[in-house]
Amino acid sequence: MPRVPLIAFDDLDPEDRAALSDLAAAPAPGADVALFQALAQRPALMRTALAHLRALMADGAVPADLKALVAVRVAQVNHCVY
User: Which of 10, 53, 71, 72 could bridge 29 with an S-S bond, Cβ 3.0-4.6 Å?
Assistant: First the structure.
């Protein structure tokens, strides 16, 4: 059970609900929807974190696929659940 209650999708602003639905449909590395449901306790914080994740994982100088592989490897090296 999480220490911070998760905000149900039905209780989110329609725009935030759509953003998290998109995230659930096409997850990015490190993008656990439950994390963002917890961050939804403070909607502005959730929106900012989601924007940072999108910017971080977008194609750029390093392709998004390679970033995903790096995230998986970092989790393995640190013995973390990914």
Answer: 71
The yes-or-no verdict on residue 52 having pLDDT over 70 is yes
Query: At 48, which amino acid appears?
Result: T
In angstroms, the Cα distances linking 61 to 11, 56, 64, 67, 74 are 38, 11, 9, 11, 19
CA distance 62 to 28: 15
- Note the maximum CA span of the chain: 39
* pLDDT tens track for 4-36: 899 999 999 999 999 998 888 876 666 788 889
Please report whether residue 1 resides in a domain.
Answer: no
